[in-house]
Amino acid sequence: MASQTQGIQQLLAAEKKAADKVAEARKRKARRLKQAKEEAQSEIEAYRLEREKQFKDFESKHLGSRDDVAAKIDKDMKMKLDIINRCMASNKELVIQQIMSYVYEIKPAIHKNIRVD
């Protein structure tokens, strides 16, 4: 009976040892996965920064800086507004005269759809 108990004790000890090894292996696997994930994130971030730099270089080379584009748009807008204002100033008096003539020169007439029986 003692040898049987001793055999059971050995089996339980071996089972505990195996469970500990499995747990340790799971912990190592989890650490490796976490490390791999962190390395992948750092590689992704480095790649993203590199691509952003390339894009900014391309953008500045082909389009100029955003300040330059905004300044050009403002300049074009001011130029167009000046043209519109000059055109308005040169035609203002003529338009006022035409409106005044329409208001003061009323020509009463019967509408073409009215029938006189």
The helix content, as a percent range, equals over 70%
Kindly estimate the percentage of residues that lie in beta strands according to DSSP: under 5%
Cα end-to-end separation: 137 Å
Over all CA atoms, what is the radius of gyration?
44 Å
* Main pleated-sheet profile: none
Mean pLDDT: 90
Global structural class: mainly alpha
* Helix and strand sequence: HH
Categorize the overall geometry.
elongated
Number of strands: 0
Count the DSSP helices: 2
Protein name: V-type proton ATPase subunit G
Family: Belongs to the V-ATPase G subunit family.
Subunit structure: V-ATPase is a heteromultimeric enzyme made up of two complexes: the ATP-hydrolytic V1 complex and the proton translocation V0 complex.
InterPro entries: V-ATPase_G (IPR005124)
Describe the structure.
This protein is mainly alpha-helical. 85% of the residues lie in helices and 0% in strands. It has helices at residues 2-62, 66-104.
List keywords for this structure.
mainly alpha
What is the secondary structure topology, with strand pairs?
Blueprint: H1 2-62, H2 66-104
Give a summary of the structure in a few sentences:
Keywords: Hydrogen ion transport, Ion transport, Transport. With 117 residues, this protein is an all-alpha fold.
